[in-house]
Amino acid sequence: MSRFYLTTPIYYVNDVPHAGHAYTTIATDVLARWYRLQGEEVFFLTGTDEHGTKIAQAAAARNRAPQEYCDEIAAQFQQAWKDLRVSNDSFIRTTAPAHARAVQSFLKALWEKGVIYKARYQGKYCVQCERFYAEDELIGGLCPDHRIPPEVQSEDNYFFRLSDFRETLLAAITDENHPQHFKIYPLARRNEVIGKLKQDVNDLSISRATLSWGIPLPWDRSQTTYVWVDALLNYLTAIGYPDDPRHVEEWWPAQLHLMAKDILWFHAVIWPALLMATEMKLPKKIFVHGFFTVNGQKMSKSMGNVIRPADLIKEFGVDGTRYLLLSAFPFGADGDFNQDLMKTAYNAALANDLGNLISRSFTMVENFCGAKVPPPDDKNRVTSRVLEELKKVRDHLERLQFHYALAAIIAAVERLNGFIEEQAPWKLAKTAPAECQSVLRELLACIKMMSFYLWPFMPDTAHAVWKQLGQTDDLEAGAKRYFVHQGPVDLAAGQVTQKDAPLFPRK
User: Fold this and answer.
1) pTM of the predicted protein model
2) Superfamily of domain covering 340-485
3) If you write DSSP's letter for every residue of 446-492 in order, what string do you get?
């Protein structure tokens, strides 16, 4: 059994979870579930980033101690992922004592390697981004993301010799034969990183002298660790660094880091450079998705258009939310969530196509077969065509093309709905009862096969279908048998089916 370690970024707790956080997390969950079905041993990590100036300010604004504030917001993230059926194996918090000790251990290793020095630094710092900006990175003197003027900060800090790793990083990204080669997708983001690395790269200030809400440096407790260095190290500390080297060896390097494009530089340059400095392996792949707007506007509390996961679940249900977030536009590109279009997509793909397929199929089995699975035969009227569509899911997920993978599943649904119209079981029930039973058995077998492909994307729906099929064994175990051992889709003749309420009521 091979191992697959994949991560979301850890989310900053200056605010409660929103649809942007859910977008990345659901995508990661789909991959985690998919690779488990392929027989991989998966470790899926998410969590919260809880140090820094912005957190201290947010806590003060709510008359909370920073730790109390972090506890409240972290709990909301954990609940949101539970509500969305996210199957993470671990949830890391950077305020956990074990993480703090591990960060100090890593920094001590950097210090002993001689890649850290102390110097005076003055620069323009955006508190919202928790980063310094060069003059040419600002837009009209403002932070490019938050459109606010950065603060001029000047203090003695400790610096990491990031510039020393510029050429090695370039080679690791561009040379597939490099021993530390790692991939960045989409290619436009890879080219963006390469372009910046071909220019001058400044050393990185890794400490703050005026911030108390952070992890103290092990050699100078008057300074705290820069929040981004603290945060990036979560990918190691969550798997036991440095206390459990065997577990780290088993799981590191990560196979995949997923994130939005605004934190690409930290993950594609700073993170691998820190690892190189301590002679650790680099992650295998970084995949960066774009930003999305809501009805053409950027999500903003001041605009009142921030979408919370709970709002989407209330409107579309858990699986409807999971489907709509990943099917709206290509993963990796910028896009727009238009709530009217989301409702249209929900009704078309889920209520009219998938929901209607399941409802009418089990109604016909109840009416024409006494709610029992018909006996087997060797006819293949539609199965091969349905399988042809479903097999596309694998290739699409390998490329993180979630919207195409879902389109393949819906295409299989449409094949089955077309099959029902062609065969007209309600007519066969009167003129050729045995043929009617044969048609409905093939239909049920295809639906069972489809439930295996649905499970990573819409786990509640897959379980609901499994229950209506009258299956008593574990769905995930059945799916693993199908994918790993290429087992047949068996249905016991006479198994009682259990028609249920419609899965996706129209909106």
Assistant:
1) 0.93
2) Isoleucyl-tRNA Synthetase; Domain 1 (1.10.730.10)
3) HHHHHHHHHHHH-HHHHHHHHHHTT--S-HHHHHHHHHHH-------
